[in-house]
Amino acid sequence: MVVRTQNPFLATVLCLTSTGTALAQRFEFGAGGGASFYSSKTISTTGANRASATAGFSPQASFTGYIGQDMYRVIGGEVRYAFQFNGLKLSSGSSKATFAGRSQSIHYDFLWHTKPAGYAKRAYLSIGAGVKQFSGTGEERAVQPLSEFAYLTRTSQVEPLIAIGGGIKYRTGRNRLIRLDVRDYLSPFPTQVISPAQGGGLGGWVHNFVVTIGFSVLTSAE
After folding, report:
1. 146: alpha, beta or left? (left if phi > 0; alpha if psi -120 to 50)
2. List of E strands, the chain
3. What does pLDDT average to in each consecutive run of 10 residues of the chain (222 residues)?
4. How far apart are CA 190 and CA 154, in angstroms?
5. Domain count within the chain
6. CA distance 26 to 21
């Protein structure tokens, strides 16, 4: 089946989901929630009165859903979607500017387990890639604090995503699992959502550390 869409985020979602479905023979369906933490960036003004501010995202809640499968003895894969509330922020000394925001991501991960399927406890490492959409959702103002450094904007920006992490799966029943996941999502800093003022600079990659607890259902006993 060929799916055509002009939305790059939606196109990636459909592609990754279709790929995961085609590969899978036995599914693990799961969902979970937890906390999301970001690294920050320093932005500086130029000129004689040089000053600096910290730009980034506030720590908030994260929610996730995933579909996975064991493809080989200890190798598996899964499609994972994550939704996060990520408020935008700028701070310099006692001054602060905040703006409502959120993000959503979709990625495919390969999982390497320390034990084959069927064990009560399985630790694993994961690595994958996908896309992430950053969105500012607050109300823009004519005058924003710390605008000499950057502007917090009501816009969206899609960036590539690398996901690295690991976790532990605990079997709690014949077809039930509890999962603890820890991941580092790496993306280029969204300079359209947090837009540096003229002469300022924001670049490089931002780390998003996410810790979640998930609950899964297996389609069949192993």
Report:
1. left
2. 28-38, 41-44, 52-57, 60-70, 75-85, 88-92, 95-99, 101-113, 121-136, 150-152, 156-173, 176-188, 194-196, 205-218
3. 51 47 67 95 74 90 94 92 94 90 96 90 96 93 85 94 96 92 95 82 88 91 44
4. 12
5. 1
6. 10
Contact by Cβ (8 Å): 218, 176: yes
Retrieve residue 116's tokens. 């084959």
- For the entire predicted model, the pTM comes to 0.81
- CATH code (residue 97): 2.40.160.20
Q: Give the residue numbers spanning the domain of 133.
A: 8-218
88 assigned to some structural domain: yes
The residues, ordered by sequence, that sit 6+ positions from 146 with a Cβ below 8 Å of its Cβ are 53, 90, 91, 92, 95, 96, 97
- HEC states along 44-57? ECCCCCCCEEEEEE
**Nearest 5°: phi and psi at 5?**
-155, 150
Any domain includes 164: yes
